[in-house]
Specification:
By secondary structure, the chain is of the alpha+beta class. The chain has three helices and nine strands; from the N terminus they run αααβββββββββ. The longest helix is centred in the first third of the chain and has 30 residues.
């Protein structure tokens, strides 16, 4: 009986420790994650530079050029998950359909967007339940103009064991298009 009680005590200690999600603020200070954030920013800046070349081509051809300084939202993706079950960032490629690792319990998700989404239109939903936007970081171009965002979402459901997540946003300016992404979180 002592062995059973001792075993249950050890198991419950490990299961509680494994189910606790670290604070996101501390995770964002990790040098490896900061390097990943810089890579995401470089992707968005490259997209912005291509957009500026496109606008220049329109101007040179005498075609209509959008007046808004902010680009319409045109790129939006779920790019990583960190959960109580898998306490490392599980980064996913833009073409991935699911996470690389199994996740469970509370989790954070990182998303990236190029352009401006109406803040109220940004939604991250998993298994039909919306997540809370924890924090958002601006992405700026060489002229210090905000051209996109890296967003961090928090799922507080400790009973999460996997499911389909979607992320969407609608452009704050013309053409008011809606972009979305889908990822299965294992």
């Amino acid at each position: 009986m002592k062995k059973l009680l001792m075993g249950l005590t050890v198991f419950s200690t490990f299961s509680v420790a494994a189910s606790e999600l670290p604070e996101l603020d501390a995770l964002l200070q990790d040098p490896a994650h900061q390097k990943y954030e810089e890579a995401l920013k470089a992707e968005v800046i490259s997209t912005h530079e291509n957009y500026q070349l496109y606008l220049e081509t329109l101007r040179n051809n005498g075609e209509v050029v959008p007046l808004a300084p902010a680009p319409p939202i045109s790129y939006l993706e779920i790019r990583g998950v960190l959960s109580a079950q898998y306490q490392q960032w599980d980064y996913v490629d833009p073409s991935s359909f699911s996470t690389n690792q199994n996740h469970g319990g509370e989790f954070y998700a990182v998303t990236v967007e190029y352009g401006y989404a109406t803040p109220a239109s940004r939604r991250f939903v998993v298994n039909g339940s919306p997540l809370k936007l924890y924090t958002s970081k601006n992405i700026t171009d060489a002229g210090n103009v905000v051209i996109g965002f890296i967003n961090y979402w928090h799922n507080t459901q400790t009973s999460f064991t996997g499911g389909t997540s979607t992320y969407q946003g609608t452009s704050i300016n013309f053409p008011y298009n809606k972009e979305d992404d889908r990822l299965y979180i294992r």
